[in-house]
Description:
Layout: H1 2-12, E1 21-25, H2 30-46, E2 49-56, H3 63-76, E3 81-85, H4 88-95, H5 99-117, E4 122-124, H6 129-142, H7 146-149, E5 155-158, E6 161-164, H8 172-181, H9 198-213, H10 218-247, E7 248-251, E8 254-258, H11 259-264, H12 267-278, H13 289-301, E9 307-310, E10 314-318, E11 322-327, E12 339-340, E13 345-349, E14 353-360, E15 373-377, E16 386-389, E17 396-397, E18 406-407, H14 408-414, H15 419-424, E19 427-430, E20 433-437, E21 441-442, E22 455-462
Parallel strand pairs: 1-2, 1-4, 2-3, 4-6
Antiparallel strand pairs: 5-6, 7-8, 8-11, 9-10, 10-11, 12-16, 13-14, 14-22, 15-22, 16-19, 17-18, 19-20, 20-21
Amino acid sequence: MLFKRFKEYAVERKLVSRGETIVLAVSGGPDSLCLLHLFNRLASEYSLKLIVAHLNHGLRQEAAAEEDGVAALADTMNLPFTSKKVNIKNYKKRFGLSEEAAGRRARYRFLIQTARNFQAEAIALGHHRDDQAETVLLNLIRGSGIDGLSGMFPSRLLNKVRLIRPLLDFKRCEIETYCFEHGLKPFTDSSNLETDYNRNKVRIELIPFLEERYNPQIREALVRLARLAVEDRLYFEHQARKIAGRLAEHRGSAIYLDLSLLNALPRAISSRVLRLLLRRYRTGQELGSTHMNQLLKLAAEGKTGSRLKLPGGLRAFKTSSDLIIARKDLLKVEKLAERELAVPGLTQLPGGKVIRASITRSEDLAWPPESNSAYLDYDSIPSGRIVIRSRKPGDRFHPQGAIGSKKLKSFLIDQKVDQIQRDALPLVTIGSEIIWVAGVRIADPYRVTGKTARILLLEYLDSHNSIGRLMVVKQKH
């Protein structure tokens, strides 16, 4: 009966497909032995290739015997067996984790590596219905949000490998009965009886207390809560994915978030958008609610130029228009190496940008110029190489409309150009003179006048927008 339900659950939720290679995480306890036995029965019908994987934590004296016992059982089923011994105490010190967290990280790393070695599509875990209830209650105690209350999913991706939990709809007592009926002899993990670990405390002390004093069906109530939370979580994640595409721009390895859009979002969505975008960095360190609060406060209340240090070597930087998130070394902008402007032609710049130059006449242009365009009196520009470069100490600039020149730094501050953007701005120069701060302002001495015959048209563009000629349409008067 349990096998039939197991097969229906796995097939309906698309946890298995014909011909797949699946790594089975087998510790030797009742859950993993039941998982192994059920999959071995299913294998021939679905042409599955099974790999038995066992991690020896080296924490208990009986660990070696458990490893040998799982290996022997795999051998009787003619299944490949692989194992690894890890010193969890050293692992714990190395990564600064609790013993429980260190064991979990080591286990998943081993399983992912095993899946890669055998080119497996999935890793099967023995988590069951009681585990789900314990997980939800643990997360509730920690102060989790909706994501934590949704507990474990039957299937999810981890490093491009599917983690599947085909026993998630089965009670612990059903699994133990199955083991007894099929002559499976699970090993008893003595650490499961110790209350040093939070999960053991919840299972041994808290849930029985709640069942006795408050609700005999507390496990069912917690599993029901998880199902409801999953529905809300999936909805919010769907909304977050749609919104992230509108407010975030990926420039190289940095993320630029539009502050006006981010700050207008409800908190339930904005924090989820941030989590979604930050997953790309895979720092191995989860950003908690404190970090989300700090990020959202920086976006809403922080001064322009403010920075925030985040776990995993990430940094957030606020400009006048964007919240930039990147690894700390990426917030240092490299100086633009000097290069001669091709006139006419395209000049490639870092970051997928180009400056396109052409010579035209006033009547062929639309007025006023777009912000990314510059109209310059070509015949008033001194002869020589026109060069594109980054700013230098001591640079001065005579902005269009100003009486005289001023420090370039002062001009950029007045224009609310942020520090990172200042260093990244291309400057078009002739000799030591700046004739255009790209995308910001031209120099007054080279503005177009009624006497201008030829105009140097400069356009600061993304390279993918520069393939065809930019259509500049003359305005009708």
